[in-house]
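#lab-general

N.A. 3:47 PM
ok so I finally got the sequence cleaned up, no stray characters, all 155 residues accounted for. can someone with queue access submit it? mine expired

B.Y. 3:52 PM
send it over

N.A. 3:53 PM
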Amino acid sequence: MDILNKMVIAACFCGIAMSLCDMISPDEKFRKQLHFIFSLVFAIGITAPFADIIRNFSSEDGICMNISEYNDIADENDMYKKYLKKMTEENISESLKNLLESNGISVYKICVETDISDSSCISIIKTQLSCDDFEKGADIIKSETGAECELWQTD
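B.Y. 4:20 PM
back already:
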C-alpha cells in the first residue's frame, strides 16, 4: 500500500510539473525536448518504489529481513487483542463509574476484567469496586452486567 501511495504522489507531482512547463515554455522548438525529459522523469518517478523492492530482495539480508517481517504478524495480532481488551475494560469501567455516580454513589476506584471470545463476545468476569456504599453499588452493577459477574471490594 505504501508503494502505491508513493507512485500516486510521484505521478501527481510529475504531471503538475509537465503541465506547468508546457504552459511556461515560450517556443514550440523546446516543447518536444521538455516533454521528453519530463516523460523520463515521470517514468523514473513511477518505477522508483519498485526499485526499492528489487534492491531489498537482491541483498542476502533483504530476503531474510522481509521473510522475518511476516513472523511478526502473530505478535501484532496479539498486541491488537490486548489493546482491544484494555480499551474495552477501560470503557466499561468508565460507564459503570458514571452509572454509579448518577445513582449518588461516590466511586473511588473501579476495575473491570473481561474476556473477549473469538466470536467477539464480551463477558465481564470480575469487577473490583471501591466506593461509599459497596452493597448498593454491587446491586447496581449486578443488575447492569449480569449475575455471573464477580464483585470484589477494594480499598
